[in-house]
Design brief:
Length: 363
């Protein structure tokens, strides 16, 4: 694997930029107002993958967001949303409480940022949230509220989580809800992500693949690309069990990509192409990434790997394809990377990645 990494300069405090309008100019990084763990957010490596698709006549690059200190791309959104909230007086360090709904990664990013910024944090989760993610949030001082009832209209947990957030914000003094699903700062954070990709690659990529949940990554990257007139083809990957682009066509066991309702941050026309993948597709992609490239990544990254495989015959020779890989895989050891769990959910499916297993030379 080839790794391109660089330390981005941080000439402008993100709070000062974020206090302006949504389309404010993007500094090279997130700002020099950061201290402690927050200085490690962003500037993640861009890694060339050479074994994922043998014989591919185009270059595959992975933007490894697992390198953020909290382990996921959501560290970016958490820091930018909270920095903006502090800069505008929406929440006050030392006395304020942040309340947010999360399936895991944003909760960890928020818990981490709140520790660094002097804020209390309450996260509302549901049974789909990985127990390890809950444990990490609690270790970082967060209070975790678990909702177990499903929404009567959709059968999903997300509307119930949001309703609980509203109740908590109304009852807690000095409470603030960042609302990742509607907050423009969530999208703004990923203008920087896209800027980093361009700087690391030396040009805009020919194809950009990213998964979708709150729409933050897609919104920020696509807006950056379109505003600069780049010819990059943007492909977003959603779960079959998601309702963002229409009625769900399958179940959704894995947290990360997909959503029960279309988020307000979503805007039509952001992506040139939408691809839907199943939970099994995500599992297979993850296992192939681990065995071919030595990358232990989360379910959304597996979804991207599978999507790229499916569209590979349509990618022109010599193209640069960048996959924005959202998180690390250690938090999925009891699910995606557990053979017994996989068999219980999908049956005997190891043949779907056994070629890589044979090439890896098992002990």
């Amino acid at each position: 694997m080839t790794i391109i990494s660089q330390t981005m300069p941080r000439p402008t405090a993100v709070g000062a930029v974020a206090a302006a309008d949504e389309n404010a100019p993007v500094a090279a990084g997130y700002g020099d107002d950061r201290t402690g763990v927050l200085t490690a957010v962003g500037s993640t490596p861009l890694v060339r993958l050479t074994r994922l698709l043998p014989g591919a006549r185009f270059r595959i690059w992975a933007k490894l967001e697992s390198s953020n200190p909290g382990g996921s791309i959501k560290d970016r959104s958490a820091y930018v949303m909270l920095s903006h909230a502090i800069a505008t007086g929406a929440v006050v360090p030392g006395s304020g409480t942040v309340v947010e709904s999360s399936s895991g990664n944003l909760g960890i990013g928020m818990a981490q940022a709140c520790r660094a910024l002097g804020l209390r944090f309450v996260c509302v989760v549901d049974p789909r949230t990985n127990p390890q993610n809950i444990a990490i949030m609690r270790a970082l001082g967060a209070a975790v509220h678990l909702v177990t009832a499903r929404d009567s209209a959709t059968g999903e947990y997300q509307p119930v989580r949001i309703a609980r957030v509203r109740e908590l914000v109304a009852s807690l003094p000095g409470a603030y809800w960042p609302n990742q699903y509607a907050n423009p700062r969530n999208g703004w954070a990923h203008r920087v992500t896209m800027r980093e990709i361009e700087d690391e690659l030396g040009r805009a990529p020919d194809h950009l693949l990213c998964t979708i949940s709150s729409s933050g990554t897609l919104r920020g990257c696509a807006d950056w690309i379109r505003e600069r007139g780049h010819a990059t083809r943007v492909v977003t990957v959603d779960a079959e069990g998601s309702a963002i682009f229409g009625p769900p066509t399958g179940r959704r066991l894995l947290p990360g990509h997909g959503a029960a309702v279309r988020p307000p941050l979503f805007r039509s026309g952001l992506a040139d192409e939408v691809m839907h993948v199943s939970d099994l597709d995500s599992v297979v992609g993850c296992r192939r990434l681990a065995l071919s490239e030595g990358l232990l990544l989360g379910g959304s990254s597996g979804a991207l790997a599978t999507a790229l495989d499916r569209m590979s015959d349509r990618v022109p020779d010599g193209s640069d394809c960048v996959l924005v890989m959202p998180d690390r895989g250690e938090r999925y050891l009891d699910t995606i990377y557990d053979d017994a769990w996989v068999k219980a959910q999908f049956g005997e499916v190891t043949h779907l990645w056994k070629d890589e297993m044979a090439g890896a030379g098992r002990c």
